[in-house]
Design goal:
343 residues; alpha+beta; four-stranded mixed beta sheet; disordered N terminus
Length: 343
């Protein structure tokens, strides 16, 4: 049974960042920091068996800021540990004379002059040759981000999470960066009408009218879950609409031995699906992403599943689509166009 269930896990520990400190200088490789850098060949070979995003540090031997980034950002224990666990890190000298194979094609340095750019550096950065440059290649090996210049710990943190948790699929980086900062860096607490309930509270509800239900599935170690809860659901457009049209259940799916009562039956983490509570896996048909937003009709039957982080402006029309019962007679693309005109 377990083999038939596809469970999508994005195991990301923000605590790696928050407790990160510099290691003693004697323990740090001055040319590499604490990151376990690979060659392109090594990274692509490892990726065949276990796909991960790539982080490519494009540097030159004479670049002072490149060396400074190694001594600071890449020598930070939390950042380095995060990169070593969730990325294939590649260090690339943009002026090397070596022939390098990248995506099945070979590249070399056509010039014999000093400080001349390698073909691959030109391919990756175009005419804007700047050092250091950090390239983030997502695990589909097609989508990439480029950041020119030195990045400190706070600048690189949201990009790393954006890549690892596949948030790039559903949100622009600028929007995500803003919400990341609101969640982890801002000290101002957000006042909102968004008040999720527990399963026990849901069972005791005696509403005047039947509502659809949203189950927000999360874990304590999921960064996207924290940002979703802190920014998306507390948005001034989203929160009052949820309160009026939905029951919202907050559900930590790693409830251990705790039982959850749902539709006349108790569920817990039996071990059948690892440490996840059986309920969320069964409701979602085995497709568990983190965070997951499960939308159920008035009879508690699943009508949609959003298995990833989603910003407020993207979620808003989806909530209307189901609350208005438009999904019963209209296809989503048609409704989406009509909603844009309406707004």
């Amino acid at each position: 049974m377990v083999n038939k269930i596809i469970i999508i896990l994005f195991i990301v520990l923000h605590s790696l960042f928050s407790v990160a400190q510099q290691s003693p200088a004697s323990a740090i490789d001055q040319n590499h920091g604490l990151v376990k850098w690979l060659t392109f060949k090594e990274a692509f070979e490892l990726n065949k068996k276990n796909p991960k995003p790539f982080i490519i540090d494009v540097y030159t031997e004479w670049c002072g800021w490149c060396k400074h980034m190694i001594k600071t950002t890449y020598s930070n224990q939390g950042i380095a540990s995060y990169i070593n666990n969730f990325f294939y890190p590649v260090q690339f000298d943009a002026e090397t004379k070596d022939t390098i194979e990248y995506m099945g094609k070979k590249y070399w340095n056509e010039s014999t002059r000093p400080k001349s750019a390698h073909q691959l550096a030109i391919k990756l950065m175009g005419d804007r040759l700047s050092y250091p440059t950090t390239i983030f290649l997502m695990n589909n090996l097609q989508t990439s981000m480029l950041s020119a210049g030195y990045m400190d710990v706070k600048q690189i943190e949201p990009i790393l999470v954006y890549c690892v948790e596949n948030i790039w699929r559903s949100c622009t980086f600028d929007d995500f960066k803003l919400n990341f900062s609101k969640t982890f860096n801002d000290s101002i607490s957000i006042q909102s009408s968004y008040k999720p309930i527990s399963f026990k509270e849901f069972e005791q509800l005696k509403p005047k009218k039947k509502k659809k239900t949203i189950i927000v599935a999360y874990t304590s170690w999921c960064n996207g879950c924290k940002i979703l809860n802190k920014t998306t659901f507390t948005d001034t457009l989203i929160a009052p609409y949820l309160k009026e049209n939905y029951n919202v259940i907050d559900f930590n799916i790693e409830t251990g031995s705790d039982s959850v009562f749902w539709n006349g039956k108790y569920y817990k983490a039996s071990g059948k699906y690892g440490t996840f509570n059986d309920l969320v896996v069964e409701i979602s048909g085995g497709q568990v992403g983190l965070p997951s937003i499960l939308i159920l009709d008035e009879q508690n039957k699943l009508i949609d599943r959003i298995p990833f982080y989603i910003p407020a402006q993207t979620l808003n029309p989806i909530l209307h689509f189901y609350a208005e019962n438009a999904y019963l007679k209209t296809k989503w693309p048609e409704y989406q166009e009509a909603y844009k005109k309406r707004k």
